[in-house]
């Protein structure tokens, strides 16, 4: 998570692009925290589109007395991404999660190293589906 305030208006989430993984950043909640004034606080996400052009999209407009919290249901973003307090003085807290996913080719290389015995151990027997009781 991070917090945006009048003195810290932006936060950039970056990853090491040299690793063999894909990164997913998901934004879960944006909320006003203690000390917020009853003013509009607009949070923007700044990223890049498919043509590698920088774009800014407002994702939350919070006001203390009518909407102090917004659930974004794990809004997925691809880093690097910057969060900016475009209006208001905050403080606004952003919370979410970061998932590192090995790329498929790296995943298959790891699988090739498994012995037949290890592969058999990884297979899981599922019980047969039984008819429902009436």
What does this structure look like?
Residues 108-134 are annotated as: Disordered. It is found in: Nucleus, Nucleolus. This is Nucleoplasmin-3. Belongs to the nucleoplasmin family. Residues 108-125 have a biased composition (Acidic residues). The strands form 2 sheets. Strands 1-8-3-6 form a 4-stranded antiparallel β-sheet. It has a 4-stranded antiparallel β-sheet with strand order 2-7-4-5, with no helix packed on it. By secondary structure, the protein is mostly beta strands. It is 12% helix and 47% strand. The radius of gyration is 22 Å and the shape is extended. It contains 2 helices and 8 strands. The chain has one domain (2-102): Jelly Rolls.
List the helices and strands and how they pair.
Layout: E1 2-4, E2 10-13, E3 21-32, E4 41-48, E5 54-62, E6 69-77, E7 81-87, E8 92-102, H1 104-112, H2 116-122
Antiparallel strand pairs: 1-8, 2-7, 3-6, 3-8, 4-5, 4-7
What's the number of domains?
A: 1
For the record, give the distance between the C-alpha atoms at the N and C termini, rounded to a whole number.
50 Å
Number of strands: 8
> Which runs of at least 5 residues are low in confidence (pLDDT < 50)?
none
Order of helices and strands: EEEEEEEEHH
Level-1 CATH class name: Mainly Beta
Largest sheet features: 4 strands, antiparallel
Mean pLDDT: 83
């Amino acid at each position: 998570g991070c917090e945006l305030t009048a003195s810290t208006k932006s936060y950039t989430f970056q990853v090491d692009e040299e690793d063999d993984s894909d990164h997913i950043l998901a934004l879960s909640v944006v909320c006003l925290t203690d000390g917020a004034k009853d003013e509009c606080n607009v949070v923007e996400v700044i990223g890049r589109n498919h043509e590698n052009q920088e774009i800014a999209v407002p994702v939350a407009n919070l006001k203390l007395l009518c909407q102090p919290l917004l659930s974004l249901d794990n809004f997925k973003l691809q880093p690097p991404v910057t969060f900016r307090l475009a209006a208001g003085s905050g403080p606004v807290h952003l919370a979410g999660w970061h998932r590192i996913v090995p790329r498929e080719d790296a995943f298959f290389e790891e699988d090739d190293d498994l012995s037949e015995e290890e592969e058999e151990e990884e297979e899981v027997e599922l019980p047969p589906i039984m008819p429902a009781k009436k």
